[in-house]
Amino acid sequence: MANVPANLKYSNDHEWCRVEGDVAVIGITDYAQSQLGDIVFVDVPTVGENIEANEVFGSIEAVKTVSDAFSPVSGEVIEFNEAVEADSSLVNKDPYGEGWLVKIKMSNPAEVEELLDAAAYEALIG
User: Fold this and answer.
1) pTM for the complete prediction?
2) How far apart are CA 80 and CA 104, in angstroms?
3) What average pLDDT does range 62-74 have in this prediction?
4) Which of these, 12, 70, 73, 84, is most buried using a 10 Å CB contact count?
5) Distance, CA of 33 to CA of 42 (rounded, Å)
6) DSSP letter assigned to residue 110
7) Is 121 exposed, middle or buried (0-12, 13-18, 19+ CB in 10 A)?
8) Which is nearest to 60 in space by CA: 33, 98, 20, 87?
9) Where are the beta strands (DSSP E) in 29-125?
10) Is a pLDDT exceeding 90 seen at residue 75?
11) C-alpha 39, offset from chain centre
12) Percent above pLDDT 90 for the chain
């Protein structure tokens, strides 16, 4: 069973979101990393760009596939996790901690309320 922390919000695309003031810290869920397998590269070319909710902010390359990463909220990408750039396996080892992907300064914090809570996300992944 995948780890689904109760303090986070989740998207239908398997991203998680932790709100810190007007900034959303975003990564992929434990379920997503387990489905992808060994992650070998994370590409986030969007730092400094404004993106909309559900828009692609980067890609995650695993041994067998490449998957887009979608932002659960709108705003400006203000930071990419450079530790993940150096060691993409952090996304597999610690998806909710050291393996976070981006920080987004939210333009519409109310969008967070539209995301799934832990129980709803657990129901989604079965």
Assistant:
1) 0.96
2) 9
3) 96
4) 73
5) 12
6) G
7) buried
8) 33
9) 39-43, 50-51, 56-62, 66-70, 75-80, 102-106
10) yes
11) 14
12) 96
Asked if 102 contacts 44 with a C-beta cutoff of 8 angstroms, the reply is yes
Q: Read off the tokens for 14.
A: 């398997």
- Kindly report, residue by residue over 1-14, the tens digit of the pLDDT: 789 999 999 999 99
Distances (CA, A) of 12 to 71, 98, 121: 11, 22, 8
Q: Tell me the pLDDT tens digit for each residue of 80-120.
A: 999 999 999 999 999 999 999 999 999 999 999 999 999 99
Token pair listed for 1:
């069973």
CB 58 within 8 A of CB 66: no
Domains and CATH numbers, the chain: 9-108 (2.40.50.100)
